[in-house]
Design brief:
This protein is an alpha/beta fold. The protein has 14 helices and eight strands. The protein binds nicotinamide-adenine-dinucleotide. Belongs to the short-chain dehydrogenases/reductases (SDR) family.
């Protein structure tokens, strides 16, 4: 019974379109030819002759979906930059990838995405290397069980998942546009969101309350940050289009994947329930497929400001699709971050 409720909550309630739900549960491929069972390797199979010297930054690549994304992109010949808090874990990921692909070029740099100062330092260090930047995967994610505040005094889940990636994208966007202009290769940004963004309605979407909530609800904070990830992608896509630049930005839901973030979500999933429910979850390779599809597959070239699930374009919530709300959120976020940076 519990498992049925969990499936109902996570899969059915979160999926705005029933056709997508049926396709997901049955593992049927969608229009793209890929579906919920496709792996990251399968969706990048045709990418063996990519342009040389491609560089990707993959946040949160020390575990789960990010580690698999980094592995598969490296396998296709992309140079990988791993921004990591835990340098030992990053070194382990690098070693694992290079065991499989000895020629893989992996660079590790320190970052804490919940700290503006750390993000600025990472970006200066990366830009100092003089490398091109073709792909940015905003994948790192946090699901804080209790109310915690970041170094900059913002709620931790929102700070890590949204504010951090907002600043990272802002500081790297010009480099991506410059690389795309010089090489003629389209730059691609992927914001890893979640279907759970649909749980947030307009009443709960107050910027100030998200930064410093009075009554903390872990699931709501996570859902808000994931909604903000989609709105960020939509707004930046609009701005890039206005500039006529050759960079795309999209948001993805990776599926419900067997990773640390799900295991840590004890509020909904107890240990025994996790064991049963894990049989229904995607593997990390399936979980990384939509990110890799949007980051590398030729079928997504030129697509921007879209939302993908199971390697197919999908519908996101009405609020996530609201252009004026997205612009408002972008303005508020930018003002807040710059005020904080000036004060530091
Ligand atoms: N697993 C799922 O079912 C699921 C579903 C929907 C969305 N997602 C999203 O997928 C992404 C990847 O998560 P995952 O499932 O692989 O979980 P995970 O816990 O294995 O990976 C999260 C990664 O983010 C990194 N990270 C967290 N806080 C950080 C910080 N302050 N600075 C730098 N790095 C930080 C962690 O070190 C880790 O490498 C997340 O954005 C998550 O919200 C996951």
């Amino acid at each position: 019974m519990c498992v049925l409720i969990l499936v109902w909550k996570v899969v059915i309630r979160c999926k705005p379109d029933m056709k997508g739900t049926v396709r997901y549960l049955a593992g049927i491929a969608g229009q793209s030819g890929y579906g919920s069972k496709s792996t990251a390797e399968q969706v990048t199979e045709h990418c063996s002759s990519l342009p040389p010297n491609l560089t990707a930054i993959v946040t949160g690549a020390t575990s789960g979906i990010g580690a698999e994304t980094a592995r598969v992109l490296a396998k296709r010949g992309v140079r990988i930059v791993i921004p990591a808090r835990d340098l030992r874990k990053a070194a382990q990921v690098k070693e694992n990838i290079q065991k499989e692909h000895p020629k893989a070029e992996i660079i590790i740099l320190e970052i804490d995405l919940s700290s503006f100062a750390s993000i600025k330092k990472f970006c200066s260090e990366f830009l100092f290397l003089g490398l091109p930047l073709n792909i940015l995967i905003n994948n790192a994610g946090k699901f804080s069980q209790k109310l915690e505040f970041s170094e900059d005094k913002f709620e931790m889940t929102f700070a890590t998942n949204y504010l951090g990636h907002f600043l990272l994208t802002e500081l790297l966007l010009e480099k991506m546009i410059e690389t795309a202009t010089q090489t003629g290769v389209q730059g691609r940004i992927v914001n890893v969101s979640s279907v759970i963004h649909g749980w947030v309605n307009k009443d709960h979407f107050s910027f100030n309350r998200m930064l410093q909530p009075k009554y903390y609800n872990a699931t709501r904070a996570y859902a808000q940050s994931k909604l903000a990830n989609i709105m960020h992608a939509n707004e930046i896509a609009r701005q890039i289009k206005e500039r006529n630049a050759n960079v795309t930005i999209n948001a993805v839901h990776p599926g419900i994947v067997k990773t640390g973030i799900i295991r840590d979500h004890k509020g909904v999933i107890t240990d025994s329930l996790f064991f049963v429910a894990s049989k229904l979850l995607k593997s990390t390779s399936q979980g990384a497929s939509t990110t890799c599809y949007v980051a590398l597959n030729s079928k997504t070239e030129g697509m921007s400001g879209r939302y993908f699930v199971d390697c197919n374009e999908s519908r996101c919530s009405t609020l996530a699709n609201d252009d004026s709300e997205a612009h408002k959120l972008w303005k508020q976020t930018r003002a807040l971050i710059h005020k904080r940076l000036r004060a530091n």
